[in-house]
Amino acid sequence: MEKIEHIGIAVNDLEAANERFGKLLGQPHYKIEDVLSEGVRTSFFKTGESKIELLESTDTNGPIAKFLSKNGEGMHHIAFAVDDIEKEMKRLKAEGFVLINEKPKKGADNKLVAFLHPKSSNGVLIELCQEIRE
Ligand SMILES: CC[C@H](C(=O)O)C(=O)SCCNC(=O)CCNC(=O)[C@H](O)C(C)(C)COP(=O)(O)OP(=O)(O)OC[C@H]1O[C@@H](n2cnc3c(N)ncnc32)[C@H](O)[C@@H]1OP(=O)(O)O
Ligand SMILES: [Co+2]
């Protein structure tokens, strides 16, 4: 794991949260991107070496909708940058972590992503992110 790539925060209203986090961080978001496959609209802020990812649900049956209905707004996941996601997934599976998706999938911000189930990481949803190299 190279570094924390981003912290994911589930929000009810992305526009309002963008304004609030813009004030908090003293800078605007640098992109808004829908990930249809995840039923989310994301917004990214650069914070030094890492990022903040705000997540609004775009699918009432999606993971963010379910999370918000159960927990309300708040921290959703921690994403780590990895150099070789397939190799890391294999290593983590061998270490006993539970992969939610067996194959990397397309995420936001030009990444391949995979998720580890929170039950295998002390209640924290973990995301692995590899930059998609052209
Ligand atoms: C990929 C685009 C973007 C990016 O960065 O590029 C994103 O980050 S998209 C983020 C949204 N997508 C995901 O979160 C995909 C992975 N998540 C899932 O597959 C599900 O949310 C899952 C499996 C974690 C939970 O789904 P499930 O249907 O099982 O929901 P439950 O409410 O029944 O949860 C079971 C159990 O897990 C606990 N839980 C759920 N979500 C979280 C969470 N974010 N952090 C910590 N714990 C979580 C939940 O409380 C339940 O615990 P229990 O003790 O059994 O009540
Ligand atoms: Co994420």
TrEMBL record:
Enzyme class: isomerase
PROSITE patterns the record matches: VOC
E.C. designation(s): 5.1.99.1
Domain VOC: 3-131
One of the record's GO molecular function terms: methylmalonyl-CoA epimerase activity
InterPro entries linked to this entry: Glyas_Bleomycin-R_OHBP_Dase, MeMalonyl-CoA_epimerase, MMCE/EMCE_epimerase, VOC_core
Organism superkingdom: Bacteria
Keyword Isomerase listed: yes
NCBIfam families: metmalonyl_epim
Family, per entry: Belongs to the methylmalonyl-CoA epimerase family.
Matches recorded under PANTHER family: METHYLMALONYL-COA EPIMERASE, METHYLMALONYL-COA EPIMERASE, MITOCHONDRIAL
Protein name (record): Methylmalonyl-CoA epimerase
Protein's organism: Zobellia barbeyronii
